[in-house]
Design brief:
Elements: E1 2-10, E2 24-36, E3 39-47, H1 49-55
Antiparallel strand pairs: 1-2, 2-3
């Protein structure tokens, strides 16, 4: 069984370290359920988490080989 939803919300509290902005956000999610013997046996989830963070002004900071001095100064909302 599969379920697809579109959520609409207002960012009123801290989310992933980003203080409330009052911004309206819209994002989609999909759940896929494997049913066995009439019960949910497994669940897979996909949601547009990146889109949600970007809509409230968050930034994704890459990690890895990038040197600290090459990275622009971090601003509030960096995730």
């Amino acid at each position: 069984m599969a379920v697809r939803i579109t959520n609409q919300a207002t960012h009123r509290g801290t989310y992933r370290g980003i203080p409330a902005t009052g911004k309206r956000v819209v994002f989609s999610a999909i759940w896929i359920f494997r049913i066995a013997d009439g019960k949910i046996a497994e669940v897979w989830r996909w949601a547009d988490d990146l889109g949600r963070v970007e809509q409230i002004g968050g930034k994704i900071v890459p990690s890895g080989d990038e040197r600290e001095s090459d990275r622009p100064p971090s601003k509030d909302g960096a995730v």
